[in-house]
Structure formats: C-alpha cells, structure tokens
C-alpha cells in the first residue's frame, strides 16, 4: 500500500505545474508545432528536422530539470542525448532524403558519404534550442534587464522559424 501511495504522489509531482525554467512545455510544444507544420506543408527534410530536433532537445532539457537529485555525473547531458536519440533515430528511415558529402582527407581519392538531411536539420535544431536561453539573456542585458512576457518562448520560436526560412529560401 505504501508503494502505491508513493508512486501516486510521484506521478502527481510530474502532473502539477511548477515554475518554468529554461525550456518549458510551451517551448517544446512550439518546436513540435514547427516541425509538424513544416512536414504538412511539404517543406524539406532539413526544415522538418530543425523543428523535431529542437523539440527533442527541449524535451530532454525539460525532463532533466524535473529530476531533483543528480544521481550520476553528466546526468543532464545524458538525458538530453537520450531524448534526442530516442526521438530522432526512429524517424530517420521515414525521411530518406540525403546529400553527398565529399571528404578528401578520409579514405581514397573521391571518397563521398551520404548524409541524411533530416539528421543534419535535427542537429541544427538541437543547437538552436541550446543557444536560445543565452540569446534571451543577451537581449535582456541589452534592454537593461527588462523582459517581455514569454520572451524565452518567443526567441526560441523566432530562432527556429528564421533558420527554416533561411534554409528554404537561401539554399
């Protein structure tokens, strides 16, 4: 009985709202919406990857903050990598778009490898979601520590949308 009560309260701890830190559910939902919207609009696999990769990293960052105690070294990083891998790797077979990458210093002359566009986009999206809090803090510093409501979420979504627009119209 004691185990049932403890597990029930543990579950309620995840369900109850708390103070949002860094990447909250709104950032994660926004990144998912961008990825799914790009997919539904028929935009390139890299652009879909930007949204889905950002969502995977945001989810990993969010979940890593829920765990109150650090049990192993690099726990946060391991959770983020596990979230990214468990979200991206199963989707790669459904996004078969690839481009050739010539690597002159690796192997024989003319060595070319195929690089998955979705994976490249996912890595870019993951990096963008990681730098979004720093961009938000930098903008706050420039504005004299003043913040706009939902500034972190706005900057995260803007970074993702601008990167997709640059990718779609410049490349």
Could you describe the 3D structure shown?
This protein has helices spanning 2-15, 25-40, 45-66, 75-88, 117-142, 151-170; strands at residues 98-102, 112-116. It has one domain. With 171 residues, it is mostly helical. Mean pLDDT is 82; it is low at 12-22.
Could you give a short description of this structure?
By secondary structure, this protein is mainly α. It contains six helices and two strands.
Radius of gyration: 19 Å
Low confidence ranges: 12-22
In whole angstroms, the N-to-C terminal distance is 60 Å
Beta fraction of the residues?
5-15%
Instruction: Kindly report the spatial arrangement of strands forming the biggest sheet.
Output: 1-2
What is the succession of H and E elements?
A: HHHHEEHH
Number of strands: 2
**Judging from the principal axes of the Cα atoms, what is the shape?**
globular
Mean of pLDDT: 82
Domain count, please report it. 1
Helical fraction? 55-70%
Q: How many helices?
A: 6
Derived structural class: mainly alpha
Summarize the helices and strands and which ones pair or pack.
Elements (H helix, E strand, L loop, with lengths): L1 H14 L9 H16 L4 H22 L8 H14 L9 E5 L9 E5 H26 L8 H20 L1
Antiparallel strand pairs: 1-2
Write a concise keyword list for the protein shown above.
171 residues, mainly alpha, two-stranded antiparallel ribbon, 6% strand
């Amino acid at each position: 009985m004691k185990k049932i009560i403890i597990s029930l309260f543990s579950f309620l701890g995840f369900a109850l709202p708390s103070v949002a830190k860094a990447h909250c559910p709104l950032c994660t939902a926004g990144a998912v919406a961008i990825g799914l919207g790009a997919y539904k609009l028929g935009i390139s696999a890299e652009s879909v990857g930007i949204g889905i990769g950002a969502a995977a990293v945001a989810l990993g960052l969010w979940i890593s903050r829920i765990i109150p105690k650090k049990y192993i070294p690099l726990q946060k990083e391991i959770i983020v990598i596990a979230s990214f891998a468990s979200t991206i790797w199963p989707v790669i077979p459904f996004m078969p778009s690839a481009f050739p990458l010539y690597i002159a210093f690796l192997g024989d002359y003319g060595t070319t490898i195929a690089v998955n566009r979705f994976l490249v986009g996912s890595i870019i999206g993951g990096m963008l979601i990681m730098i979004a809090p720093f961009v938000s803090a930098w903008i706050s510093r420039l504005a004299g520590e003043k913040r706009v409501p939902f500034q972190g979420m706005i900057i995260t979504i803007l970074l993702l949308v601008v990167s997709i627009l640059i990718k779609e119209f410049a490349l």
